[in-house]
Write a structure and sequence with these properties.
By secondary structure, the chain is an alpha+beta fold. It has 3 domains: about 50-65 and about 345-410; about 75-120 and about 285-340, Beta-Lactamase; about 130-280, Tetratricopeptide repeat domain (Serine Threonine Protein Phosphatase 5, Tetratricopeptide repeat, Alpha Horseshoe). About 55% of the residues lie in helices and about 15% in strands. The chain contains 15 helices and 11 strands. It has helices spanning about 5, 10-80, 80-90, 135-145, 145-160, 165-185, 190-200, 210-225, 230-245, 255-265, 270-280, 285-300, 340-350, 350-355, 390, and strands at about 100-105, 110, 205, 210, 310-315, 320-330, 335-340, 360-365, 370-375, 385, 395-400. It has a 5-stranded antiparallel β-sheet, sandwiched between helices. A 4-stranded antiparallel β-sheet has the order 9-8-11-10. α8 (about 210-225) runs antiparallel to α9 (about 230-245). Residues about 405-414 have low confidence and may be disordered.
Length: about 425
Amino acid sequence: MPMRNWLRPPRNLLVLFLGTTLVLTVGLGWLGWRLQQQDRAVGAQRVRDRLDSAADLVAAEMRQTLTAAEAQLTLLSTLSASRLLDSASAYAETLGDDALVVVFQPGAVDAYPSHRLLSYPAVPRPTEPTTDAFAAGEALEFRAGDFESAITEFQRLADSSDSSGSNAAQTRAGALLRLARNQRKAGHPEAALATYASLGDIRQVRFGGQPADLVALRARCDLLAELGRHAKLKEEAERLDADLHSGRWQLDRATYLHFALETLRWVVDDAASLEDLARVRPGPQSLAVGVAWVWERWQQDRHSKEDQLGGRRSIWSDDRSVLLLWRGGPDRLVALVGGPGFVERHLLGPLQARLERQGIGVALDDAEGRSVLFEVSETQAEDVLRTMAVTGLPWTLRVVDADPTAATAQPPSR
């Protein structure tokens, strides 16, 4: 046998060596993969623990804030009428610009601050001018068609009623309205415009449930449109529009929308702008819709045997959510009505810095699954849900891992 064959390693030993090496390589790879999987599982569990802790924290803090607000509403519902105005106004000032406090009493609704509520579920119905005082002038107007004589009669009545007192104001307002109408019929538009201006100075008088000064402003715009005086019309219409959106009048929803949409036609120059404004303008009405919802609920509950009434709810209006809190009894109910800004500022605001440090995102959904605050993308798979039944909140709470690099961070401390 040649010497080189003695020095060559046996073939089966080489195969055994290669096999052993392969097994060790595969084993080490499998162990590495298992360690990687375990690391991922540990990281995922840390994320889950962090989200669970954050969800419990957010739910507890939000629940505490709502409870404190409801306690304030309960206190307001028990105050005397003399103290209620100042206390409700002061509390409302702390809420922000998309929330208000509303006091419901039988036949009356008062908002604080009043300019944030543009329409009311119930409006005052003061005594309107009796028609007996205007019978002589209306006979001249409608039966005889004698507009000039009717003008003289209504002018006399308006002048004789120019004194203090609610009855005098009602009679004067009714006389001025009829005087302007006859001046228009008789072809005296300038005189009619001046009469409507005088009528616009009278407050606390209503025609068919509509404030006299609102009727006067609208009539001036209508007459200016007839006369083709577009520059003056736009000026007057913008004034009327500003008054409508300042909460100057207590109007029911139908009346408010009627005047608001009619005024828009005078304010804007083309149909496209009108459609754009019509889409934007309903936003402030979401608070009014919330107020109407609580009013209707109170009308149902106040006839029950319950002495203490209250609740919390989130509703949807004009593509936005509205938070409703209410407390009180059958004779007086006080509500807090707030938009998304109120929820973000007062309920999540105190937690925002802490959540950002922990890489936590929070979203709220209403009972129908609509996003109330902060939409969360479907790619953010790591999340924790807390239902309304669990938290007692009027929303489903969703907490997500907004910062995947924070997987090793410690859970937020309470």
